[in-house]
Amino acid sequence: MDKLLCPSMMCADFSNLKKDTQELDQAGVDIFHMDIMDGRFVPNFGMGLQDFELVRSVTDKPLDVHLMIQEPSKYVEKFADLGADIIYIHPEADQQAARTLAMIQQKGKKAGIAINPGTSVETILDLLFLVDYVMVMTVNPGFAGQQYLAYTDSKIEKLVGLSKIHHFKVMVDGAISPEKVAQLSKNGVTGFVLGTSALFGKAGTYQEILTELRKY
Ligand code: DX5
Ligand code: ZN
Fold it and tell me: Which cofactor does it need (predicted)?
């Protein structure tokens, strides 16, 4: 199955975000991953609305927005109207996650849940038939450049199994290295958020790096 390679744009070159986005687009990325944070759900701030609008204005490829914010329903309409194609919420941050996911789909967007390393599959079982994507955080969210949390591997395996029943795509986000892309694509993971562990600041052009990753 073709994998989805998704650059984590909070790791991009902010001295020239427009140029970096164009280069990534030309290099053949599949989805631009936009990390939005509120300093409450996670202790950081990620990208801003203007960054989102700039990336949106430069590329026609899909943008996903990873809402690492409390009460994400408050910003679904905003990002849908700004041109997000996929909207991920954290069910840990939303007491009405099922309603918010329905709201995303009513706006004509794909709905996803992103789950923290400490969130069990058992607690999200009743959301799985409502989503198009499940993104497993393989680091505690908020920062790039962290270490991969190996204990999330078993959760990924469980979700790959469940994805065959509920027809969602399994994505991973956090410290994803080329080795992890190789291992997890073999295990049935569809999408990979690529930050500082596999893409940004690595040797070679974006094109060369992506070509290598697609070989796995
Ligand atoms: C972390 C973000 C990730 C991160 C990925 O909260 O959701 O997208 O930026 O970057 P690396 O691959 O460096 O962990
Ligand atoms: Zn992310």
Answer: Zn(2+); Mn(2+); Co(2+); Fe(2+)
Q: What is the pTM of this model?
A: 0.98
Element (H, E) at 33: strand 32-37
In the three-class reduction of DSSP (H, G, I as helix; E, B as strand; rest coil), residue 147 is classed as coil
Choosing from 4, 11, 176, 200 the residue with most ligand 1 atoms within 8 A of its CB, the one to mutate for a pocket test is 11
Does the active-site annotation cover 35?
A: yes
So what's the ipTM on this one? 0.95
CATH code for the domain in which residue 122 is found? 3.20.20.70
Question: Cα dihedral sign for 136, 140, 142, 145?
Answer: negative
How far apart (Å, rounded) are the C-alpha atoms in residues 198 and 91?
Answer: 27
Summarised one tens digit per residue, pLDDT across range 98-145 is 999 999 999 999 999 999 999 999 999 999 999 999 999 999 999 999
Total tally of structural domains belonging to the chain: 1
**d(CA 137, ligand 1 centre) in Å:** 9
Token duo for residue 88: 């991920």
